[in-house]
Amino acid sequence: MRLTRRDAVAALAAAGVAVGGGATLLSDSPEKSDASPLDDGTVATLVAAAEVLYPSEVEDTEPFVTRYVQRRNADEPDRATAVADTVAYLDEYTDAWFDAAFASLNPADRDDAFRRMGVDTADPDPDGSDVERLRYYVVNELLFALYSSPTGGKLVGLENPRGNPGGLGSYQRGPQS
Predict the structure, then answer these.
(1) Closest Cα to residue 93, out of 123, 133, 54?
(2) pTM, entire model
(3) What's the pLDDT score for residue 78?
(4) Cβ neighbour number for residue 4 with a 10 Å cutoff
(5) Cα distance between residue 155 and residue 152, in whole Å
């Protein structure tokens, strides 16, 4: 299942981010926006996290995640700082355990790092411990982006996620197996 530019727009709309000027999001280039406070290293780490968190059926993770996280954090500098700080903690952790930054690890080691940290059982809390913040700002945010998009919603049987008009046919047809 290929993630598209429209999936990024739908996910942003579901997150409550104004996407009225969607021309930038719908352009073919997922490059960094001048308005985004996230640097390339932070975005690369978020993309690497998504590659581990997203089901293997998902394709084109990098442009989707880049568009989503850049626009999601563009108008909220405090949130962007919290995301960058959380990603920096993740890199410090993997550097201590694996002698490498998170994004440079192979997918199996990335998954192992998340499990060692206990991210899968941590409560998401933006003001909590480093692991709770990682769960909140990285894991939950990336999963929310995927599953609130039309393509991600289809993976779990939500063919008409909130904010994505599906028409009368989708209501009369019911879930497709």
Answers:
(1) 133
(2) 0.79
(3) 93
(4) 17
(5) 5
Return the percent helix, strand and coil in the chain, to nearest 5: 60, 0, 35
Q: pLDDT tens for residues 77-122?
A: 999 999 999 999 999 999 999 999 999 999 999 999 999 999 999 9
Above 90 in pLDDT, residue 5? no
Q: Could you tell me the residue range of the domain that residue 57 belongs to?
A: 5-173
Residues 120 and 114: beta-carbon distance below 8 Å: yes
Strand partners, 111: none
Query: At a CB cut-off of 8 Å and minimum separation 6, what does 20 contact?
Result: none
DSSP-derived 3-state class of residue 2: strand
Residue 21: both structure tokens together: 């000027």
CB burial of residue 24 (10 Å; 0-12, 13-18, 19+) = middle
Residue 6 has which token pair?
Answer: 């429209």
Total domains in the fold of the chain: 1
